[in-house]
Amino acid sequence: MPPENTSIVIIGAGPAGIGMAVELLRRGITDFTVLEKADAVGGTWRDNRYPGVACDVPALYYGYSFAPNTAARSTFASGAELLDYFQGVASANDVLPHVHHGVEVASAVWDGTGWDVESTTGERWHADIVITAVGRLHRPRFPDIPGLADFTGLLAHSAQWDPTTDLHGRRLGIIGTGSSAVQMVVGASPVVEHLDLFQRTPQWVYPLADEPLPEQVRAHLAASPEAARAAYDAIEKQIAAAADAMVNGDQVRIDERDDAVRAALAGVRDPELRRKLTPGYEIGCKRLVVSGKFYDAVQQENVELVTEGIERIEADGVRTVDGVLHRLDTLILATGFRADAFLRPMRVVGEDGVDLDTVWADTFTNYKSVAIPHMPNFFTINGPFSPGGSLSILTVIEQHIGYVLQLVDTIRAQRVAVVPDTDRTQELFDEVREKATKTVWFTGGCQSWYLGADGLPIVAPLTLDQLREDMRRPVLDDFDITPLPAGASS
């Protein structure tokens, strides 16, 4: 079957894909297609629906700058509220007619005139430009624990949880202690009969309170775009200051953060439990878990923190290395994601038949997180080395979108192929990676998704001002720009 021709293919309909589609439509560009593997838009907020799921960035700021999220009922929006928000933005801006659901991309191959994109079911598209918006935390990581298949109760990864499941009266086990696990302990402990939290590595927890937003405040923000934008800007200023402190080593602000974290932990009454909850690495080495309720929840009588290693999973529970069988009827794997997978298992082949797996054989070499050598007219939103460790990911997404749109304009106006120069890419990449190795992410003594398989950072230490300057305008001298053959359709 011949491919469907389109100017632009966007892969993914989460926050990044929706944002890119909205901005294309605002420019009057309508000949684009969004390919989404799931049956609805929304990305991570469509997938993650476990008990207690929420965002750890203030709701008024965790949204697009052109549409501040004024509907959340508290400081931090629930997952359901965020799904409503992103689906609402997609609907209100006429993105949905461009989305093809149930389409997982298997390959994208450059043929000299454009990209042949093929799905796992054989559907094909030919596009001048491919923009990937697949996110970094969407491929679940399953633990290598013997006996997982032997468990006869309800077993699910946190990203595959069915929200209609009734947890009342259940004996629940949660493996993992990252943000998802912490939120689940808070959300599930009031209703389950018993909860075992299996911890390998404790987390530092920042105690931000999740306060209700009064109805009159929400109504005012919804009715006044100026007020909503002012609130958005005020929160951005606070987040930018925190990023500045982390990147530039502002010890006063860092000490203030650390004091708050340690004071929250000191509130755990039982000294032995407090000891078990105390990490052995520096604060900030991993992304801080944000919760003002976790330490209270983990001290409830029906909650047990299990720090003994897991020997195996059995039919009716988890057996730890001390021989104890923790009897359970429900087990949730809060074991994170394959953040280092990025575009995989998608096969991407660029100019001269160069495979992306070859380009990324050693590490995720890329140009400013948005472009890749040997891959003409192929762009990544929130790609490798995005500064997700210090800034809101929505801020990063919007900055990347603005930058890529300028390259899209160049490609369409001049009918050219644009690809980052390999040597310049390596030079800039090495600078960023060298800077990242001086951060607490690398020196703080922990393992996290901030580090790649080689043990080196895969996030960039940028302040908001640095990100904006980086994304302000493409330096076209950093790219190889060649005319497309006659007949190409840009």
From TrEMBL:
<protein>
    <submittedName>
        <fullName>Predicted flavoprotein CzcO associated with the cation diffusion facilitator CzcD</fullName>
    </submittedName>
</protein>
<dbReference type="InterPro" id="IPR051209">
    <property type="entry name" value="FAD-bind_Monooxygenase_sf"/>
</dbReference>
<dbReference type="Pfam" id="PF13738">
    <property type="entry name" value="Pyr_redox_3"/>
</dbReference>
<dbReference type="InterPro" id="IPR036188">
    <property type="entry name" value="FAD/NAD-bd_sf"/>
</dbReference>
